């Protein structure tokens, strides 16, 4: 059941602009896969999904290929599209993004797995 549900998730996000887990849950339910938010959240993590800009919105996309490889070019492109300004304070680097772009930028940095970056913290636009 899990494999079929996850395959359906990939199919749905490839055909529809899904912005929220709630939209994904409704689409899964309509396709005959009723599920909970916690299950969808785990599936999103296991499938390597993240949000990428598309038409002024952030939609779920697969941010690694079906073999689990990091899509470095895609991550760099996401960062280039999201970051508006860079600043620093003491030991922190502050990346200013468009409204709603901080999570995509933070996810991209996390996926790039730079050893110098201990972690990311995202708000709405920083």
Task: Tell me what you see in this structure.
This protein has 126 residues and is an alpha+beta fold. The chain has helices spanning 2-15, 21-30, 37-47, 72-82, 102-112; strands spanning 49-54, 57-62, 83-89, 92-97. The strands form two sheets. A two-stranded antiparallel sheet has the order 1-2. A two-stranded antiparallel ribbon has the order 3-4. The chain starts with a helix and ends in a 14-residue tail after the last helix. The model has no long low-confidence stretch (mean pLDDT 86).
Structural class: alpha+beta
Number of H- or I-type helical stretches: 5
Rg, please?
Answer: 15 Å
Instruction: Report the strand count.
Output: 4
Instruction: Average the pLDDT over all residues and give the rounded result.
Output: 86
Estimate the helix proportion, in percent: 40-55%
Oligomerization: single chain
- How far do the termini sit from each other? 38 Å
| Shape type | elongated
Write down the secondary-structure element order.
Answer: HHHEEHEEH
Q: Largest beta sheet, briefly?
A: 2 strands, antiparallel
Low-confidence runs (pLDDT<50, min 5 residues)? Answer: none
How much of the residues is beta strand, in percent?
Answer: 15-25%
The largest sheet has its strands arranged as 1-2
